[in-house]
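Q: I have two molecules that I believe assemble together. Could you output structure tokens for the complex as a whole instead of separate predictions?
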Amino acid sequence: MPTPLPLGSTIGIIGGGQLGRMLSVAASRLGFRCHIYEPGAEPPAGQVAHRVTTAAYDDEAALRTFGQSVDVITYEFENIPTTALDILQDLAPIHPGREALRVSQDRLTEKTFLQNLGLKTAPFADITDAESLEAALHDIGTPSILKTRRFGYDGKGQARIMAPEDAAAALADMQGAPSILEGFVEFSHEVSVIAARSLDGAVAAFDPGENVHSEGILRTTTVPARLTASQRSDAVLIAAQVLNALNYVGVLGVELFVTAQGLIVNEIAPRVHNSGHWTQNGCTVDQFEQHIRAVTGWPLGDGQRYADVVMENLIGSDMDRVSALATDADTALHLYGKAETKPGRKMGHVNHIKRV
Amino acid sequence: MPTPLPLGSTIGIIGGGQLGRMLSVAASRLGFRCHIYEPGAEPPAGQVAHRVTTAAYDDEAALRTFGQSVDVITYEFENIPTTALDILQDLAPIHPGREALRVSQDRLTEKTFLQNLGLKTAPFADITDAESLEAALHDIGTPSILKTRRFGYDGKGQARIMAPEDAAAALADMQGAPSILEGFVEFSHEVSVIAARSLDGAVAAFDPGENVHSEGILRTTTVPARLTASQRSDAVLIAAQVLNALNYVGVLGVELFVTAQGLIVNEIAPRVHNSGHWTQNGCTVDQFEQHIRAVTGWPLGDGQRYADVVMENLIGSDMDRVSALATDADTALHLYGKAETKPGRKMGHVNHIKRV
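A: Yes, here they are, computed for all two components at once.
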């Protein structure tokens, strides 16, 4: 068993959004302090952190000071510039490690990694120009979807191709960025597994949740998900396989399509995941504490589910419902303290709990 | 219904210990920021607060700056100097109000207040000197206990008088402070009720917990407490009576002795209370969120108990057990991030959960 970080140690978190905020709160329950590194002013995580550095990801001096002030580094998002990681890696351990970031930062690398593990993915092809897109459309067919290889989230950097004549417009949408064409998958529903791996290689998974998206943004996650016992077991095994292949330390989210041909991996996220927020009111140890335990070398905690939960994201004007939600029984509010409500912006979430 | 504080408002918390820390975390879930005022350096609450002021309670300038920066003021301990409150009360609303502080800061005032409400207390007498102590011992008898009227907690400022000849030593222990003699109460066990009252006068109580103390410090609180249905109802009614009499806003703790003659009020605490920590893992809305809801003018939340819980304080060397506790199922750790472990110091607590 590795030596766990002593209580009172400082966890550096790259990114100051709601995931960093909830990680910081979970860290406090275990007696750790958090130091947030975030380019944007007044980050939500800064409201509940011991220390905040406001600096750009190419500010070498700020990165060095941050790295020297912390005992371990983790992150709330995967698109951290490689140059920043090059500086930080000599100053403190980074968990999850760089291999997980390398794989998940690039859709093409990620799909190839998954395929090499023997896991099913949507058909895909590397797109560099109009010719490669034409060839890929010939193989993969339509409808299909063109995505930038890097920096996409919540439906951004994506264009649907319903018929071959949409190809030029879709390619233009990519603005010259390296891209990947993905075939459409016929699926009945999407589920995700939130799983964790500790520093000594132990793996634990939360019960899979069933996700509903709209306009590219997650709306609800429901546990239990509609899965047969063997699908549930497959889902957890896929997550464990990914964790082990990456020699991963921390919490990982795996999105899966449920199809007649089995489970198809949509994508992996090397961090706590929106579809795992239900664990805050359904498990003794939630995904945020589980992640903190893993990256600090603690043993993984008890993630057994004790309630049925529907997690509902509060997006934009959903915030108008907060005062009504505040009086609902068996309903837990989790707001992010963001200064401004904008359409499409995740402002909070609510867990509707049904004790079982 | 009063207008609730808007999301993003700042709650000023006087005192930066573990109660302030857990209040700050609860406030973050509702989208509020906290500003901690605490004389001691590196307060536990500061690790999860938006802002910390480190200044003495007689620092007028610091108090003014603090009061002007917050939208409402609350506190984690009752012994706030009156002079500080005089300055703050003109700058932001203080909840719970000054009457609750006035009553609970002085054991004699508190006992008199409770008696005037028709509630049962231990027999008591005002002690100013050796003569008044001799007269009181004649009335109340021995064993009895001499306590300073103000500033006692966790067994400090108390001396037992087992026989009249102990009187002089006990009085010397008070070091000239105004004191109160309390008769011993024959009780089978102690329970406490954590109850809340909102700005519009609604009252909600958590299920009473049963407390075990040792060396003057709370060791465990167990829910459910051993109470008959009518005792449970009496306990909650007593708390409601106190809340209403004080026109109280926030969470209050009431300690009660269970005796053959009914429930006897031991003391009241105008704040979240150690014996309410079980609510973090037994209720959808815990005592900390309930307090934040009350002082911000929000509706009270759903405090129904969904699990049996034994809350155990981690005191001093109990911290050696943390790594073992971390692997126990149905066990939730809550550590306070205190720099130094000392004998008798509350370092954290753990909730042992049994789903019902």
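A: One point stands out. Chain B has ten helices and 17 strands.
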